[in-house]
Specification:
- The protein has 112 residues and is of the alpha/beta class.
- It is built from four helices and five strands, in the order ββαβαβαβα.
- It starts with 6 loop residues before the first strand and ends with a helix.
């Protein structure tokens, strides 16, 4: 249900950065998510959607922005924790063409 404040935590292990998001991915997520991403270096980026409650169209644009920044830096982006609904939306909007989507964290992290 929409209305949960967004937060993001960064974990970095063995050159893989995981952005652990909680709450709603909407306009309010843009600044904290971009700041969290910009504060990382290294190789692959894994987006953890396990605790994301809601993603609206502006949130989709925020994710596309992260994908663009990663692509410009030559970084691979992977994701896990998407519900079936959001996985389908990512496929319809073709976001899934630009990041691999996995069922669980271990698979997403090990894929690189």
């Amino acid at each position: 249900m929409p209305g949960t404040a967004f937060d993001v935590r960064v974990d970095e292990i063995d050159g893989v950065v995981t952005l652990r998001m909680t709450g709603d991915v909407n306009r309010g997520a843009q600044e904290p998510l971009e700041r969290a991403y910009s504060g990382t270096t290294g190789g692959s980026v894994v987006l953890d959607f396990s605790d994301v409650d809601y993603i609206n169209s502006t949130g989709i644009a925020v994710i596309v922005g992260i994908l663009a920044m990663a692509r410009a830096a030559g970084r691979e982006v992977r994701a896990f924790g998407l519900t079936d609904h959001y996985r389908q939306i990512f496929q319809i909007t073709r976001i899934a063409d630009f990041m691999a989507i996995y069922d669980d964290e271990n698979t997403a992290v090990a894929a690189g």
